[in-house]
Amino acid sequence: MIRKQFGLAGLARSALVAAGVLAAAATAPAAAETTLKVVVHADLKILDPVWTTAFISNRHGLLIYDTLFGLNSKLEPKPQMVDTYTVSDDKLVYTFTLRPGLKFHDGKPVTSADVIASWQRWGKRDPMGQRLGSFTSSLEAVDDKTFRLTLKERYGLVLDTLGKSTGNLFIMPERVAKTDHMQQIKEYVGSGPFIFEQSEWRPGNKVVYRKNPDYVPRSDATDAMAGAKIAKVDRVEWLYIPDHNTSLSALQSGEIDYFEAPPLDFIPILERNRRIKVIDIEPLGRQGILRPNFLYPPFNHPKARQALLYMVKQEDYMRAVVGNPKLYKKFCGAIFLCGSSNETAIGSEPLATQDFEKAKQLMKEAGYNGEKIVVLQPTDRAQYNAMTMVTIQNLRKAGLNVDVQAMDWGTVLSRRANKGNPYESGYHLFHTTHGGPNTANPVSNTWFNSRCERANPGWACDMELDKLVEDWSRETDPAKQKALIDKIQARAYETVPYVPIGQYTQPVAVRSNIEGVLVTNVPVYWNIEKK
Amino acid sequence: MWAYVIRRVLAIIPVMATVAVVVFLILHLNPDDPAAIIAGDDASTAHIENIRRQLGLDRPVYVQFFDWVLRLIGGDLGASIFLDRPVLQLILERVEPTLALAISTTIFSVCLALPLGVLAAWKAGTWIDQTIMALAVLAFSFPVFLIGYGLVQGLALELDLLPVQGFVSLSEDPVEFLAHLVMPTIALGLVYTALLARMTRSTVLEILNEDYIRTARAKGLANGRVLIIHALKNAAVPIVTTIGVGIALLIGGVVVTESVFAIPGIGRLTIDAVLHRDYPVIQGVILTVSGFYVLINLVIDLTYTVLDPRIRY
Predict the structure, then answer these.
(1) Which of A117, A187, A195, B12 is the most buried (most CB within 10 A)?
(2) What is the pLDDT of residue A15?
(3) A456–B42 CB contact, under 8 Å
(4) Helix ranges (DSSP H) in A7-126
(5) Mutation test of the interface with chain A: which of B49, B159, B165, B263, choosing the one with the most A Cβ atoms within 10 A?
(6) Domain A69-174: homologous superfamily in CATH
(7) Which DSSP string corresponds to A460-497?
(8) Angle at the Cα of B255 (from B35 to B106), degrees rounded to 5?
(9) Is B149 in contact with A245 (Cβ distance < 8 A)?
(10) Numbered ranges of CATH 3.10.105.10 in chain A
(11) B231 and B305 Cβ atoms separated by less than 8 Å
(12) Quick one: pLDDT band at residue B276, thresholds 50, 70, 90?
């Protein structure tokens, strides 16, 4: 209890404690259990991180499951559960051996059979896993600890796929991983550094994880998602507090230790408090995007989508969404994020210069004739709402007839997945965000996927762009990969699967006695100490 | 009397049936799609369609309706789409915080409002009456969330007397249970206190002008006896009605207070289910709360017979 002893409950508690002191005096006190209390960005509802793409479920997975590879701070995939691996000269055969001492939370050892079953289930759901699957000839166990992947043809992203930081290949016991990929798993046994306490799970309120005493971390130093994962607190409690003001007060009073996603306008208040630290854990940051619907006019025409590029001035968006210039880039024309190995400015000139006259001209060439443009505005998501407000203003300045449809985020999610006519059940434009290493990679960047019907809502459609992405994924020579990235981005600025409206970071806020928060792009809770 | 009670209990069935049909139709005839929410922010269309099929949300509405009704007749409120847990279990898990808050708020409000209302009536037209009524208007005017944030700032952050948020079960720690209830009770209770105080004042004032009160005073009865035995007792029926309806409203209407103080009660469950389009949970909560309303009304009606022997069913 953080409150001072003169607090109402503190007084009563003191009296009770005083009464019990003599009786307890003979008993030596056990070491105090350390609990890290975290306010998370969403309520954990789905416990199967393979079945859903919800971020909160993925973060649950990172705590209780382990992965074969993990990305280090340079975003290079490094072995995690894997001890050693070899790649054949023709780069078609990968042989992996698991680290000794890996055990599931039920005490059973992790074997190749567990890995293969987990891989197969994940490979049916995850887009990057599916792509790797299309290159796979066989995946088989050599022995209990060794397994072999044989490819049909060379694929440059094998290790990146196995080590990616969201949509991970989490290793589950074979009996769990045999669950049909369309069904959710019912048993939550991992081999990660924390154990899920299902009996203490209170949906809508609290999720509890206990330190895994049997976890054997790697011997090499912790480096982002790679290296040793050492649980330094006994318990992690995730609290779901939907009201941000309450979360802020709870952090200020010391009732919580870690505020995962404080609203960006709270950052100056938090920075002024000496008992709170604001930490940027996203070196790559996140990207706001404006997504056009490819299915209906005018945005089924590339010129209309190009017109959107001329309407955008990223700094205007970032001022409205973020405010604090320390947290955003004034301009970033790289679709795969500034600061990533795939950063390039090629093709981004239209985005760099706001020109409403040019936008008007392109809209005209696309056949636009004053029809209503339906824009989805999520009023309950501050960042998305601010982006949408700037877009509405820009569309009007470019002479478009805007039909703003205000709704809650749940309705936006439903509506944006609807392929119907924009004037009935569909839409023309909406905003969303994504970020981290997955955005930096053309294959794992799901909003960049331009496979028409198989793309995310908005259904970006450009098979030529997809072909370039496929060529890039096959390539193993870094120089050739770089040349292909330039081609991909140049093409993307012609066909515009989405418009990047700015790059910014979402810091976390912690109490000043919290040490060891890792810069990993996604919040993880190993390595954190409470001093 | 018993025949009346049985009739009233049976009357719950058509009420609940009507609520069930209306709620189901309102929820299912709009274009919202829980599958799109459950699939996550980065889900592809194929992924969303798979989930929709798996949850049976692609079936015609009438098929889903009859499926739900059949389960309901068997006493099964269904399972949450998101949590895959029985709705009844979710509701039961949330009952304690909401009930505790409703009861503590009612006790707080009644203890404060009745004396203030009677005092205001007794001192009608004086500065005491005007001060009490002015405070009541003030309490009405402040939104619950504003009172809540004010209390958090003052009592929790500045004075460090109480916890900012959360709920602790009575069985877990009685002291913490009470400590966590103080601020939500005050925040929620002030509006209710104002309502009850005004109601008490006007009812008692009306009674104080009755002939039998004048007679009692003429006979030389002490003011206190006139007020408590003759006036307040006769004013009890409308006051009890207000208290009873208030409890029912508190059960169904604590969303803001539960959100501000992060109390995992029925209100939070409802708003969360609405935001996620968790249809079975929304339906289950509305059905349960409407059943509770009907029962509370029955209890209020039966209380009348105790308070006023002239009332018989």
Answers:
(1) A195
(2) 46
(3) yes
(4) 8-24, 55-64, 112-125
(5) B165
(6) Dipeptide-binding Protein; Domain 1 (3.90.76.10)
(7) -B-HHHHHHHHHHHH---HHHHHHHHHHHHHHHHHH-S
(8) 150
(9) yes
(10) 286-504
(11) no
(12) confident
Place of tokens 């320390």: A326
Burial A503-527 (b: 16+ CB within 10 A, else e): bbbbbbbbbeebeebbebbbbbbbb
Please state, as a whole number, how many other Cβ atoms lie within 10 Å of the Cβ of residue B141: 10
Contacts of B198 (CB under 8 A, 6+ apart): B117, B133, B136
Domain boundaries, chain B: 2-73, 88-312
CATH 3.90.76.10 domain position(s) in chain A: 69-174
Cis preceding linkage at A298, omega within 30:
yes
* Type of residue found at A87: V
- Whether residue A203 and residue B85 make contact (CB cut-off 8 A), yes or no, is yes
- Domain A37-64+182-282+506-530 bears CATH identifier 3.40.190.10: yes
Q: How many CB atoms lie within 10 A of CB B140?
A: 13
Domain covering B88-312 in this structure, CATH number: 1.10.3720.10
Per-residue pLDDT band for A302 (boundaries 50, 70, 90) equals: very high
Which CATH superfamily is A286-504 part of? Dipeptide-binding Protein; Domain 3 (3.10.105.10)
Instruction: Give which of A96, A90, A261 is closest to A169, Cα–Cα.
Output: A96
Chain A / chain B CB contacts < 8 angstroms: 160
pLDDT tens string A66-91: 999 999 999 999 999 999 999 999 99
- The pTM score is 0.86
pLDDT digits (tens, 9 = 90+) for A406-459: 998 888 988 999 999 999 989 999 999 999 999 999 999 999 999 998 899 999
